[in-house]
From TrEMBL:
Designated name of the protein: XRE family transcriptional regulator
GO MF annotation, one: DNA binding
Domain HTH cro/C1-type: 19-50
UniProt source species: Stutzerimonas kirkiae
Gene3D superfamilies per the UniProt record, alphabetical: lambda repressor-like DNA-binding domains
Length: 101
């Protein structure tokens, strides 16, 4: 496994701090948020610390429960769409002839 890019680590750390500040603002204990999301308190602590080994599913659950999902992904949602060009075809690699040296 390669090294984790610094820019990605910074985004996770910023997301974790945002989660923690929103949780504290709403006066929700880690134990209570963990119960709402079905995650362990340890996993929630790792999310708040920006740990990169936590599943993306766990991050998304916490963001959703705190109402932060759109805020965190506003750049992604605003700039591109999955259905931007539905007529676009798949990318296919050129077949290499067997006798092509």
């Amino acid at each position: 496994m390669g090294t984790f890019p610094l820019v990605c680590a910074e985004k996770l750390l910023a997301t974790g701090l945002l989660v923690k500040s929103r949780r504290l603002l709403r006066k929700i204990r880690q134990k209570d948020l963990a119960g709402m999301t079905g995650l362990s308190v340890a996993t929630l602590g790792k999310i708040e610390a920006g740990t990169p080994t936590v599943e993306i599913r766990a991050y998304l659950l916490v963001l959703w429960h705190l109402g932060l999902l759109d805020e965190v992904f506003k750049e992604t949602l605003g700039s591109t769409s999955i259905t931007q060009n539905p007529t676009e075809k798949r990318v296919r690699l050129r077949k290499i002839a067997e006798d092509d040296f």
